[in-house]
Amino acid sequence: MTARVCRPTGGGVGGDMQANYMAVAIVIGYMVALGLISSYARRSVTSAHSFTTASGIGASVPAVLVGFLLMSEFIGTAASVGTTQEAFKSGISASWNIIALGVGFLFYAFLLAGKYKNSGQNTISGVFAQVYGHKTKVATSVVMIFALQIVAVSLYAGGGTVLSGLLHVDRNLAIVICGAVAVLYVCMGGMTSVIYTNVIHSVVKYIGVGLALYFGVTSVGGFDQLQAKLPPEMFSWTNVGWSQIFAWFIAGVGATFSTQYVIQAINTVGDARKAQAASFYTAILMVPFGIMAALVGMCAKVMFPEVKSISAFSELIGHMDSLMAGVVAAGLAASLFGTIAAISVSTATLLYKDFYLPLVAGGEESKQSLRFVQIATVVVGLLPIALAIFTPDILKMTFLGKALRASLSVLVLFVFYAPYYGTKLGALISILTSLVVTVGWFLLGNPFGIDNAYVALLVPLVVMTISEIGKRIWGGETASLAALQPSRSATE
């Protein structure tokens, strides 16, 4: 049984113009602060190498800061608003959507953090090249760039829609402004700017979802009343279904194992032990956020049972007072900025290392290298804006980025733990086949109730096993052992 508990608060984001101006002013102030921080970070950027690695900060970045950085990069508007939306329908079990990411980072700490750091590479394509060769390196880079751009489009579309409703501004204008701000501050300070600003983003996100939860719980009369006014299954940790929970785990673990900006962030710490510590910090930060976001959705279910689930978060914020609503809106903006910043600099790094250096600069960094990577950051950051504006159903494509990363995560484990398994050709075919089959499975509507995440995980296992069998029967080019030897330089 649910009850509508809606407490007018003297003007929220959804109320009068004064509240609208207050929220807009807070978000604009937040943007200005980001610009000032990036101006400071710009002093440490003197080359393309320092732009992509944050080497200008010093010997290394503290592990706890990298933990905040990764948490901010992974919890975007789709994760925060999406978890709230799912909790509106399924209850506390929706928190597994984000908890799965935390578990992914826990596995990452034990299995991969140190190995990525010791490899000396700060791109996933560079890691694959050590074992599977140049062709697989190029294919991996193209697929990862494509996946990151799809994620960026979904972030712009979803984040712009939510912020436009909260701030009472045009959706397209909200998308353009948020995108332009994120791209410009990253262009100034590169990876250094991403680190500094994402630590702030993490704090603002926590404050924002904390305020939303406080308002929601207070409005329904406390946790006891929340429990009394919702069906018991809303408090079941498995209400969403084991199949969905496992699918989230596959997507979450896959995303942490093989996402470019995770590798790039991990390489900013000093050694393998600190890389592992950074992963632990990220996991710890993820879990409470997921639970709080789910509880916000459950409060919204009690307060506004008749609204659409996608509007649960914005409806709740719309009844907060103007100051609190503005802070929460800034938190949502931080969710958008944090991930877009990471995607922009990561994609630019792949373009620079895998295409510009070998094809244009002859493998050597030059005076033009910094300009190229800065321009690339702007282009890859602004390009998804047009797609987000003109493609109304773009949020449905978010699965593709997750599926691609889940498929690549299988090869990541082979690279570090079974480099002899399969062949170089098998790895290349695995990447391409995974893309085609997973997309096709999704378009067919996930036949037999099997989520496309399972397919993304299974395809590379099957292809690499077939290539291993073929190698034993007919022979084939075995992967090298280079991945087991630390690279001399992170810039190789």
UniProtKB/TrEMBL annotation:
Cellular compartments per GO CC: plasma membrane
Predominant location: membrane
InterPro entries the UniProt entry points to: Na/Glc_symporter_sf (IPR038377), Na/solute_symporter (IPR001734), Sodium:Solute_Symporter (IPR050277)
Single GO MF descriptor: transmembrane transporter activity
Keyword Metal-binding carried by entry: no
Location in the cell: Membrane
Topology class, membrane: Multi-pass membrane protein
Domain of life: Bacteria
Protein name: SSS family solute:Na+ symporter
Organism: Hansschlegelia beijingensis
Phylogenetic classification of the source organism: Bacteria, Pseudomonadati, Pseudomonadota, Alphaproteobacteria, Hyphomicrobiales
